[in-house]
Amino acid sequence: MMNIYAIAHELNELTERDSLFRKIAEGELGYEDGLVIGDPGDVDNFLYLLIDITHNTAEELDNWIDKKSLAPEVAESLAQVLEDYEYNNTDVKVTDENLKHEIDNLISLVNNAKSFIEANSDYPGAVSCDFYVYVHENLRNGEVFYVGKGEGKRAWSKNRESYWVKYVESIEGKYSVKIVAKGLSESEALRQEEDMLIKYAKTAINRDEPVGVSFDLSGSGVDDA
After folding, report:
1. For the chain, what is the radius of gyration of the CA atoms?
2. DSSP assignment, residue 31?
3. 56 neighbors 112 (Cβ within 8 angstroms)
4. How far apart, in Å, are the Cα atoms of 101 and each of 19, 90, 98, 104?
5. Which residue from 38, 139, 196, 206 lies 20 to 30 Å from 48 (Cα-Cα)?
6. Digits of tens for pLDDT over the chain (225 positions)?
7. What is the phi/psi pair of residue 44, to 5°?
């Protein structure tokens, strides 16, 4: 896990060095440049969101470094940042590989920051152990096609990425939900999710996606397979 100061430094540098993020922040790049495709309004919102995530996360880390008792509030704020990203990410498609790399790096930094704060807080109960790791299994051939981590009803939610929706449609909704580990902290769940993605690398359709960026924890969809 990266040191929290290194994470804060990387975030501060992201929009200052010669990067696509800097050009987006300064208004040099927008939807018309084709780095991200989709409805122009959705693309602009997505690009602005990336900059907001960068600055907001850096600010939250400064808050935590100055006053560690803020850990629960900061961790919750970072979770909301990730949820906002996940929600807006479904409306657009990033076509530029360099920007995609920068975004992956950003989301990884936010996840690392959140995990670090939860793991290094003296606040009682700041680290939740309500997370679990789950898989979705194709009932037609018995293969695991999706690996995830979450809490609450996340495992049964159908509010997901387009590639998951298309896959489930292709098997006519015939899949099962299995909880493979529970009672975990989020950092433990992330590690086990990564291990499971390696285990099911040949069949998991999200094997190439950034680990742990999906935070839609309130989905009410229930598996009816």
Report:
1. 18
2. G
3. no
4. 11, 17, 5, 5
5. 206
6. 457 778 888 888 887 788 888 888 888 888 888 889 989 888 888 888 898 888 888 888 877 777 655 667 777 788 888 888 888 888 889 999 999 999 999 999 998 888 887 777 654 444 456 788 999 999 999 999 999 998 888 888 888 889 999 999 999 989 998 999 888 888 888 889 999 999 999 999 988 765 444 333 333 333 333
7. -60, -45
The residue type found at 144 is V
Amino acid identity for residue 12 in this structure: N
In the numeric block, which tokens belong to residue 208?
């190439």
**Single-letter amino acid code for the residue at 46:** F
Structural tokens at position 73: 């509030």
DSSP 117-129: HHHT--STT-S--
Distance of CA 105 to the CA centre of its chain: 11
